[in-house]
Backbone:
DNA sequence: TCAACAGTTTAGAATAATTATAATGTAGTT
DNA sequence: AACTACATTATAATTATTCTAAACTGTTGA
């Protein structure tokens, strides 16, 4: 739970001006107990429900991308028509529920360490993301 | 290396009519030594280069999705503005080169078995996909 | 063989997410 | 206060993909 002043400092420290739009977005994204997953549309809706004056969709895009650049958000690799983001920037993986299109965190304790034996010369590994697609188990219960 | 007749049988066997468009797409996709990755656009371009009369883009979409339904293609989970498909339908993972946007197979021998400890009640695991993002290692060579 | 029908193809329109544009606004500095 | 670079905004543009409805074709069975 950060306060407005802390957001201001954090933004300034990373070279982003603390505008009122960015502060509002910080509040919506980071002023929570738990991390969560969202799409740009989710976020824009969330903001407009909480706010009288609206924030332009372009600003939401700009801000989310800026926050991602600065490492305050992670983009999740899933092939969907829209992009998913995560406020949990720690190293972790995901379940994707194909019935509900819902993302669920899979913490590192829930998965054995992944050891990649192959090496691509001249390249370094930036990230290793596991996506576990799940769906209702009805088939097997017949 | 399959012949035209074999494609016809395969299509019929899975309830798809062997039209000349589908046979051409089969040829482009499956008449090769090695499996490969592609986007719809790649495929459409590839076809139009090899063919005088063109295949409608809608048909390419329809066919790729039909082939995916039947299990002849796999879609790769990567967050990009476009969808990537793979003619290698075996269980395997991918490197994604962020410099070139190129996908590289990571065979199962190249990665230790992934053991998921967490269980989501009432849900079965449909797939486990690992995406390893890589990029040039120049930074470290300074 | 051929008519009938369901499955396919097609061009083009529609949709949806995202990015670009260019004018206006604002934070930070002098 | 004034200047400047960065931000926001509405809107247009772009891009991948899906939809639509008409024309076409593979298959079946008389």
Residues:
């Amino acid at each position: 739970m950060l306060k407005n002043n802390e957001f201001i400092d954090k933004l300034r420290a990373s070279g982003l001006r603390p505008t009122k739009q960015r502060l509002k977005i910080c509040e919506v994204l980071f002023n929570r107990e738990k991390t969560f997953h969202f799409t740009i549309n989710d976020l824009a809706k969330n903001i407009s429900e909480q706010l009288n004056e609206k924030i332009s969709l372009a600003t939401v895009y700009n801000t989310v991308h800026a926050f991602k650049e600065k490492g305050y958000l992670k983009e999740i690799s899933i092939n969907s028509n829209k992009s998913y983001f995560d406020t949990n920037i720690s190293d972790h993986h995901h379940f994707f529920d194909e019935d509900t299109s819902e993302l669920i965190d899979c913490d590192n304790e829930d998965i054995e360490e992944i050891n990649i034996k192959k090496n691509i010369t001249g390249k370094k590994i930036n990230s290793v993301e596991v996506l576990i697609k799940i769906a209702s188990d009805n088939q097997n219960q017949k």
The domain at 4-76 of chain A is CATH 1.10.10.10 (Arc Repressor Mutant, subunit A). The CA atoms of residues 95 and 132 of chain A lie 5 Å apart.
